[in-house]
Fold (-)-alpha-amorphene synthase.
Amino acid sequence: MTPLSTTHEDITAGALRGAPGSRLSDLIDAHLHMPFPFRSSPHEHQAVAGVEKWLRETGLADEGWVPEMIARTRPAQLASYNGPEMDSGLLQIVADQIAYQFVFDDRAEEIGRQGPGRLLPMLDESIAVLRDDAPPSTPLGAALADLHRRVRERCTPAQAARWAVKSREYVHGLLYEAVAQADTAPLPTGLCTSIRSLTAGVEPFHPLCEAAQPCELSDAELQHPVMRRLTRLSADAAVWIPDLYSAVKERQTGGMINLALAHQRARHCSLPVAAMLAIRQINHAIDEFVGLFEEIRPRLSPSAVGYAEGMAGWIRGCYHWSRTVPRYADAAADPV
């Protein structure tokens, strides 16, 4: 594993020398280590049509900005890259949930910028739906209730319960993000990554990775310290990679919860140097994931192996999706 550099000079004198005019995407491609090969689902086109239909049926597409945003984020493509072995039904749940989280996250960001307190009604409805099966009062709440119903129909009770708990953590994370955005004090890198692990919304999909396996995992497998560490590494690496590609966009809009920008604020350095620091952190996480998985693999059941491979799929999928999705086109446009 490559230790994280702590000096600008170490990075600038090495990776960045002789690359004037390079794009951020070139820097990422040159230095990010991705051991998992590209894969996609044969059901991707079906999932694309399914997402569009579901957004219309839930009323989320009625707001003019949503169809355009979905076209720029391609949730079904992300689901396809993350879960290439999922059957069409489970893949559709994943694709619809990704689309929902994009809508929810963008709405929360817009409202949260006006003040964290303004988010409370929106977040309260979501928690009530997830925790108490309360009837929804908005299209966003209705979409979440529909996802909750479908997850319970497809998953075991234990898997559905884990999905609901992780989904509530995601909702709470958006409030933390709004508070951080409203604070004028510099945000420490560690706090930024802690909030990012919640707002990423990756861990709610881990129970769906489990549901794709032939059997439910035992508590001993799920709670094994190595498996718990794999869960953390998967979620972190999967969201830190898009942070690299979204850094230009986030910097332009004043975003705070971004790994590369957190390094830039902490080191008072250029964006390329900050991106290299973030890349080294991501590479370290991926290398640790691979090493721990190989260590524990012989002791896992076939379903647990498939579950861990599903978590690895989120690292791979987020990388290949981030490289081409229109939402992050800025990384491949302007020189850094």
Remarks:
- The chain has one domain: 8-332.
- The domain at 8-332 is CATH 1.10.600.10 (Farnesyl Diphosphate Synthase).
- The radius of gyration is 19 Å.
